[in-house]
Amino acid sequence: MLILFSLLLLGLSVAVLLQRRLLNAVILLGVFSLVSSVIYFWIGAPDVAVTEGAIGVAFVTFIYVLALSDQGKLHVIAEEVPPFLFQEKGELQGAELEILSGFAEEINLELEVEFVGHQELTSLIGGRRADVIAGAYFPGYLAGDGLTNTKGYNEGQLAKIHRTAGGEGDIGILAETDLSELTEIGEEDLSRFSSLDEMVRAYNEGRISGFISDSGRMSTALYRVNTPLRDKSEISTLGEVKYGFAVSAEEGELLDSLNNYLTDLARSGGLDELLSGHFR
After folding, report:
1. How large is the C-alpha radius of gyration of the chain?
2. N or C: which end of the chain has fewer CB within 10 A?
């Protein structure tokens, strides 16, 4: 029996060394300590067995698991924008979900997606809080300080919806959007809003004469515009945008890995196939 447990310890040691995920290795180390405590008890050292069980199995394993609880995951924060990345009946869906799931699998991480408000995106990125910004993101959509942009994977348009008959009032735009890098829109005064819902509500109530949005969000915005006002509105194209992702400026390795994945996915034809299934 002692030989059997000794061989088991050897097998566990090899398994720990072969693990690619740290959390799995820590769990196996806990099993290693448990088997060791059994061996100590078997050879007549119950005090050592109890110490090994209490410290090696319980305390040390708990500390390691606690320390690694945020490791092994790709943390993505995003706005909910169909068909890019959204939730339906409690399940995540969208083109970006497929892209990021494939990327997380390639770098051997577990994908974790959290939907947040527009104003929270830049405050949560970086450090141990979040790794990637997604959800119909494009360069200029957020303030660029502390962010780096990946390669684009899909093209869209920047557009303005406004009353056909004109009217007084500012043009609405989401807070922090930098239009200077995207297009020339004229000399209209702009009103900044913290969310798409708030901006559409202001348009419905006549507090602004129009608003600017990208094509990814425009269909959602139009759905929320009052029907009579929708019939009296028109859409003008202002320029083009290229959707991608953003990472913290400190995460150069992650940026390179994601760019390489997007390049390989496009080169293989998998990106076009993926997008055609979501954007018709």
Report:
1. 26
2. C
Q: Are 262 and 154 in contact (CB under 8 A)?
A: no
Q: Both tokens of residue 71?
A: 């490791």
Q: What dihedral angle (degrees, nearest 10) is formed by the CA atoms of 84, 155, 220, 150?
A: 50
- For 231-257, write each residue's pLDDT tens digit: 999 998 888 899 999 998 888 999 999
Kindly state the tokens that stand for 9: 């310890």
Structural domains of the chain, ranges and CATH numbers in brackets? 2-67 (no CATH), 73-154+242-276 (3.40.190.10), 164-235 (no CATH)
Distance CA 152, CA 259 (A): 9
- Rounded to the nearest angstrom, the gap between the alpha carbon of residue 199 and the centroid of all alpha carbons in its chain is 24
All residue ranges of the chain with pLDDT < 70 are 1-2, 5-9, 12, 16, 19-23, 26, 48-49, 53, 56-71, 127-128, 166-167, 180-188
Cα gap 130→113, rounded to integer Å: 9
- Cα separations in angstroms, 28 against 2, 55, 70, 252, 279: 20, 15, 18, 32, 44
Phi, psi of 83 (to 5 degrees): -95, 20
